[in-house]
Design brief:
Keywords: Hydrolase, Iron, Metal-binding. With about 270 residues, the chain is an alpha/beta fold. The protein has a single domain, classed as Metallo-dependent phosphatases (Purple Acid Phosphatase, chain A, domain 2, 4-Layer Sandwich). It is built from six helices and 13 strands. Helix 5 runs parallel beside helix 6. Bound molecules: fe (ii) ion (FE2) (2 copies). One fe (ii) ion binds next to loops.
């Protein structure tokens, strides 16, 4: 089932503590079958950042059958435990997940460079602290990694908060400083992967492909089933397939093809907009 190019399995919003074990087990089985080049884990591994939830998330991640790149989400911060939230926000993340919560994490292989950044913040100016933000230091790190990679590599940014919203979820808010990020990443990046909304969709913003997946294995559904996205890239084409949970397995619900000219993306056959 593995194609000639790069294959990314994108999973998000696992929310251990609210996980559905049968879905999690089936997802692992499917990931073994589809043999991705990389598994992008787009944050919210836990529900309340509790010790037991991190242990369960870590045990799940240990079973992933391919290299993974993991970034945190807002639920991976101590929610109302303010003292810990402000003084040691990533203590359990560091203990159980181990990836650096402040720097950019990078995965590179033939034809692919992926950089993950943490967009969750211990506080924000907005009253809704679940909102995230990307900063200039992170954008610089992403840009430098991409600029050093071979020109035609697929360049992927992995984050938790979204760079594109649909009309139905406009009120949720984009990742903070998304306009700055898009200016910085245009013509330099290809794909922006996110979660947080618990709805699956893909689209184009400023010439970049955005892929959002639903909650992979939790019962925190927002009107649609569990899902993950399977992204296949060959040459200058990318297909984002949304794999939704059916009765007892994942099935392709929707598949969208994108094509690039340089690092500028469009949907083949769609009117220029
Ligand atoms: Fe979430
Ligand atoms: Fe979230």
């Amino acid at each position: 089932m593995k194609p000639a190019g790069v294959r990314i399995a994108q999973i998000a919003d696992l929310h251990f503590g609210r996980d559905v074990p049968a879905v999690a087990e089936t997802l692992l089985e499917e990931l073994r079958e589809v043999r991705p080049t990389l598994i992008a884990v787009c944050g919210d591994l836990t529900q309340t950042a509790a010790e037991a939830e991190f242990q369960a998330a870590s045990a799940f991640l240990d079973k992933l059958p391919a290299p993974s790149l993991i970034v945190p989400g807002n639920h991976d911060l101590p929610g109302w435990r303010f003292w810990t939230r402000f003084t040691r926000p990533w203590r359990r993340w560091r203990r159980h997940i181990a990836s650096d919560p402040y720097g950019a994490v990078t995965y590179e292989t033939d034809g692919l460079i992926a950089v993950g950044v943490n967009t969750a913040r211990r506080w924000t100016f907005h009253h809704d602290w679940s909102r995230g933000r990307i900063n200039m230091r992170q954008l610089t790190a992403i840009g430098e990694a991409f600029d050093e990679a071979p020109r035609d590599d697929l360049r992927v940014v992995i984050a938790h908060h979204p760079f594109l919203l649909t009309d139905a979820v406009r009120g949720r808010g984009l990742v903070g400083r998304s306009s700055l990020a898009l200016r910085h990443l245009r013509h330099r990046a290809d794909l922006l992967l996110g979660g947080h909304i618990h709805l699956a969709y893909s689209g184009i913003v400023d010439g970049l492909v955005v892929s959002q997946c639903g909650t992979a294995v939790s019962n925190r559904l927002k009107g649609e089933p569990n899902s993950y996205n399977l992204i296949d890239a060959t040459g200058d084409r990318v297909t984002v397939a949304i794999r939704r949970w059916g009765d007892d397995r994942f099935e392709t619900h929707e598949s969208t093809e994108y094509a690039r000219d340089g690092h500028e993306w469009s949907i083949p056959g769609a009117p220029a907009g």
